[in-house]
Amino acid sequence: MKRYGKRKRKTGIALLIALLLVFALLAGWAGFSWTDGNHLGQAQSLAQNEENERPWYLILVNKDHPIPDDYEVNLLELSNGEQVDERIYPDLQAMFDSARAEGIYPFVAAGYRTHERQQELLEEKITAYENEGNSRSEAEKLAKAWVAVPGTSEHELGISVDINADTQRCSSDAMYQWLAQHAWEYGFIYRYPQDKTQITGIINEPWHYRYVGKEAAKEINEKGICLEEYLSDEE
Ligand SMILES: [Zn+2]
Prior knowledge:
Layout: H1 2-29, H2 39-49, E1 75-77, E2 83-85, H3 89-101, E3 106-110, H4 115-131, H5 136-144, E4 160-165, H6 172-182, E5 188-190, H7 197-200, E6 208-211, H8 214-223, H9 227-234
Antiparallel strand pairs: 1-2, 3-4, 4-6, 5-6
Helix pairs in contact: 4-5
The protein binds zinc ion (ZN).
């Protein structure tokens, strides 16, 4: 009886060791996700830990938040020569496909812009206001309501697009309406609404859409808030 009992204990220990090994292997395979609760939480905390930044699609750029000097963009060229960040392309294309299926014909009139191009645009606008008889400082003030100061334009990120309608096939108003209703489904927001100009510092631009990812776009659309408000709630 004694020998039998001893053998049973040994078998028990061997089983325990085997179980521990299996557990260790599973834990390793799962990337230790049990410490973070889930994979999504792990991905988010990793993204936030890296220089304490938000995910790329939630970067805030406005007059008070210039683009970081080390910002990098991987561009993809559209068929009309405009360029966008390659990461927004699949959702942008899906949005345009859906619009076309409903008789709406959008195209990207302006995508990525270099810092130099933004500077040129601002200068052109200032000159136009000067030609209307405004002083240089007045012209600058007026121009800046229309054209973002270089370094503060979302177009320099490559994740914002000015969308125009192919007016041979549909009206601009019909397209703006379609975008206002559906863009959020593809992760894009109507970035500068009429009732938020005090916060955004930019006049109403029904053509300017900004990629923020589907989760944020849904919430921003549901709450009727702008990106600045969404991001300040988050903090
Ligand atoms: Zn724009």
